[in-house]
């Protein structure tokens, strides 16, 4: 049983993971939490879908990934303005009640797998009050709390909700080993309560069905939300330097807007500097595939990341990657083998030189891309992730 938050990356993880677990003979129910802004995608196959509509949908503000509004202008760092925040908390409470009611109808041995801290807290409270018997597994992607970047301190609210979720669940899953180790130290958790399972990619897509005419051509591709912690401005500044050297590559940004004011800054800067950039917004999985296959290289300049699915996506499509030297990339890559280089997020000169090197050397691009694809296909596929969770559930059922 899975709780779904509506965030794009998490929705995709739950969809792929639940479908794979179902194929292994596991009964899976997805609690599909809907918001007025981001509609989560249904899981396929034999996975049952239980819809939970947001009773506060009319209160959702455009530009919010969670439907609770933005914390950008909040007087309390880490908390959304009170009316939006309380509305979202009540919504999570109703969704948790849905999970609890389902667990009553299902047999003993049910696992509830949650990807959001407040949902984990509500479920733990309801389990205690109603004397329910399900096991609660929380998968955390909150690197802003667990692996904060130098100079960016996690908010009090973020630390609090993470602490409560981790303490109240039965088991915690993180995407990388360093995060798991830090979590045990930071929150005084027994190592036996923590596992690290990276999320893999679906490598079953048939790229051969696309012709050259189908591809969305670009020199440099960026795929993720438009927000400051993703650090897209760094790439624009690198493009400015390259332009002054007579190099004018095309740069395409694909992804929804999280911070509209930041997008305005990016587009205004690009216009002032006459840079060749294009923002296409959120696209379908099929069109995203055409962008990946049509790109020469992929950049990930984030200041903070959670799972960083775009890294494995780019590798699966055989594209060379230049990424920030942060977790989880440090744990999931090997410089010069499956990516060109990991660079400090503020090292403009190094980013410029690395992008220039890849743009000018097609042999290097092909070599890095081929090794990246092989690396992902042998170590990080969705089937491997599902089997790891299946093994975890089996181990927990024995205890």
Spatial order of the strands forming the largest sheet = 10-9-8-11-12-13
Estimate the strand proportion.
5-15%
Radius of gyration: 21 Å
The overall number of domains is 2
| Mean of pLDDT | 77
Looking at the overall shape, the CATH architecture of the largest domain is 3-Layer(aba) Sandwich
CATH superfamily of the largest domain: Glycogen Phosphorylase B
Biggest sheet record: 6 strands, parallel
How many strand elements?
13
Q: Classify the fold: give the CATH topology of the largest domain.
A: Rossmann fold
Helix content: 40-55%
Low-confidence stretches: 1-7, 34-47, 49-82
CATH domain class of the largest domain: Alpha Beta
N-to-C SSE string, H for helix and E for strand? EHEEHEHEHHEHEEHEHEHEHEHEHHH
Count, helices: 14
Q: Which structural category fits the helices and strands?
A: alpha/beta
Overall geometry: globular
Q: How far is the first residue's CA from the last residue's CA? A: 19 Å
What secondary-structure arrangement, pairings included, does this model have?
Elements: E1 2-4, H1 8-23, E2 29-33, E3 48-52, H2 82-105, E4 111-114, H3 117-130, E5 135-139, H4 143-146, H5 156-168, E6 171-174, H6 177-186, E7 194-196, E8 218-223, H7 232-244, E9 251-254, H8 260-272, E10 277-281, H9 285-294, E11 295-300, H10 309-316, E12 321-324, H11 329-332, E13 341-343, H12 348-360, H13 362-379, H14 382-398
Parallel strand pairs: 1-2, 2-3, 4-5, 5-6, 6-7, 8-9, 8-11, 9-10, 11-12, 12-13
């Amino acid at each position: 049983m899975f709780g779904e938050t509506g965030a794009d990356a998490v929705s995709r993880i739950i969809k792929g993971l639940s479908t794979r677990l179902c194929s292994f003979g596991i009964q899976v129910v997805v609690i599909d939490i809907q918001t007025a802004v981001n509609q989560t995608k249904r899981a396929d196959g034999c996975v049952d879908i239980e819809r939970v509509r947001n009773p506060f949908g009319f209160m959702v503000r455009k530009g919010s990934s969670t439907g609770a509004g933005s914390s950008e202008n909040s007087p309390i760092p880490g908390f959304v303005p009170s009316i939006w925040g309380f509305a979202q908390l009540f919504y999570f409470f109703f969704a948790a009640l849905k999970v609890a009611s389902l667990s009553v109808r299902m047999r003993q041995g049910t696992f509830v797998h949650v990807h959001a801290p407040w949902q984990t807290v509500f479920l733990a409270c309801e389990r205690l009050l109603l004397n329910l018997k399900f096991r609660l597994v929380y998968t955390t992607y909150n690197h802003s709390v667990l692996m904060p970047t130098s100079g960016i301190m996690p908010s009090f609210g973020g630390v609090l909700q993470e602490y409560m979720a981790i303490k109240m669940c039965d088991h915690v899953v993180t995407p990388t080993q360093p995060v798991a180790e830090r979590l045990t130290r930071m929150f005084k958790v027994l190592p036996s309560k923590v596992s690290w399972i990276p999320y893999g990619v679906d490598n079953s897509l048939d790229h051969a069905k696309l012709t050259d005419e189908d591809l969305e051509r670009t020199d440099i591709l960026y795929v993720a939300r438009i927000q400051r912690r993703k650090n897209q401005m760094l790439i624009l500044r690198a493009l400015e330097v390259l332009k002054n050297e007579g190099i004018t590559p095309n740069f395409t940004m694909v992804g929804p807007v999280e911070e509209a004011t930041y997008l305005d800054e990016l587009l205004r800067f690009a216009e002032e500097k006459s840079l060749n950039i294009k923002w296409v917004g959120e696209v379908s999985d099929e069109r995203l595939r055409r962008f990946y296959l049509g790109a020469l290289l992929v950049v990930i300049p984030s200041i903070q990341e959670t799972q960083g699915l775009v890294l494995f996506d780019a590798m699966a499509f055989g594209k060379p990657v230049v990424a920030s030297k942060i977790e989880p990339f440090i744990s999931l890559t090997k410089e010069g083998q499956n990516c060109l280089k990991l660079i400090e997020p503020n090292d403009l000169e190094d980013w410029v030189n690395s992008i220039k090197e890849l743009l000018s050397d097609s042999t290097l691009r092909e070599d890095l891309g081929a090794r990246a694809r092989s690396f992902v296909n042998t170590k990080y596929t969705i089937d491997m992730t599902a089997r790891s969770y299946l093994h975890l559930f089996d181990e927990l059922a024995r205890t």
